[in-house]
UniProtKB/TrEMBL annotation:
A UniProt-annotated Pfam family: YitT_membrane
Membrane topology: Multi-pass membrane protein
Cellular component, GO, one term: plasma membrane
Organism of provenance: Clostridium uliginosum
Localization terms from the record: Cell membrane
Domain of life where this protein originates: Bacteria
Name of the protein described by the UniProt record: Uncharacterized membrane-anchored protein YitT, contains DUF161 and DUF2179 domains
Ranges in a coiled coil: none
Keywords, sorted A to Z: Cell membrane, Membrane, Transmembrane, Transmembrane helix
Residues annotated as domain DUF2179: 219-273
Database matches in InterPro entries: DUF2179 (IPR019264), N-reg_PII/ATP_PRibTrfase_C (IPR015867), UPF0750_membrane (IPR051461), YitT (IPR003740)
Keyword Membrane: yes
Stretches that traverse the bilayer: 6-27, 39-68, 104-124, 158-181
Length: 281
């Protein structure tokens, strides 16, 4: 229950960040950032229908299509995120009058894309998406043998072309820039969230270090044995994967108890298995 509460809390934070990006940066400046949200902005301008309501309708249709053509892989979390975003946007439109934080289109595109990417990345780490064009991209990927990334670009490009027709070429190009920035920033944020430290400790105090890692830091480790190329002395090498906070703990411990140890550290963007992300996910 505690884990479930944490997951849905993070998804909610992600949804709120996406909603802020759309309502305070993209929608007031008529920048279509791709996806269902961009399509909702176009339809809002043509027909005057609230973007939140448009997104609810399109997400219902797209999720129905996903279950028919893809299967039930879009779980409860994605449905919660998709409809949660639509409801929040609709509530903002009804209860307030959102205004752009900045009228500068370059600033709006950059900061809106950053917030959008951050929110999307947070949801992605909890195995949730807001649906939209990722569904059409999966369908193209499955039935047309087009790479998922290329399929997503195709889906978003259709929205951008509609935006160009509705708002003009200049605003459409800002939407295209947003699609590019958001895609790249999402990858960067995801890598940052998943960042861990791969640590190798060369030490003569094997038992002391292993006990600290397994009992105090509460991480597993693997022990190798070797011989120094120069000293010809037998040595112990301890390999472990730690979070940044745990590495600081280990570094302080080694400084106090084994200052002669030799430590190498590498950053790793993804760790699968016991104690980390499930390898089956």
């Amino acid at each position: 229950m505690k884990r479930l509460l944490k997951e849905y809390s993070l998804i909610t934070i992600g949804v709120i960040l996406v909603a802020i990006a759309l309502e305070l940066f993209f929608f007031p400046n008529h920048i279509a950032c791709g996806g269902v949200s961009g399509l909702a902005l176009v339809i809002n301008n043509i027909l005057g229908i609230e973007p939140g309501i448009v997104m609810i309708v399109f997400n219902v249709i797209l999720f129905a299509v996903a279950f028919i053509f893809i299967g039930g892989s879009f779980g409860i979390k994605s449905i919660y995120a998709a409809f949660g975003l639509s409801i929040i946007l609709s509530a903002i439109e009804k209860c307030t009058t959102p205004i752009a934080i900045t009228d500068n289109l370059i600033l709006a595109t950059i900061f809106g894309s950053a917030l959008l990417a951050m929110g999307t990345a947070i949801m992605y780490t909890q195995d949730a998406t807001t649906g939209g064009t990722s569904i059409t991209a999966k369908i193209l990927n499955k039935y047309c043998n087009i790479d998922f990334g290329k399929s997503l670009v195709i889906s978003d490009s259709v929205v951008i072309l509609l935006a160009m027709y509705t708002f003009g070429v200049e605003l459409g190009l800002f939407g295209l820039l947003s699609v590019y920035l958001t895609g790249n920033l999402i990858d960067k944020f995801i890598d940052g969230f998943n960042l861990s430290k791969q640590v190798m400790v060369f030490t003569k105090k094997e038992e002391l270090v292993v006990n600290y890692i397994t009992k105090d830091v509460d991480r597993g480790c693997t022990v190798f044995y070797g011989k120094g190329g120069y000293t010809k002395e037998q040595n112990c090498v301890i390999l472990t994967i730690l979070s940044r906070t745990q590495f600081i703990q280990l570094k302080q411990f080694m400084k106090e108890h084994d200052p002669e140890a030799f430590i190498t550290v590498n950053e790793t963007t993804e760790v699968l298995g016991q104690g980390f992300k499930n390898i089956l996910e």
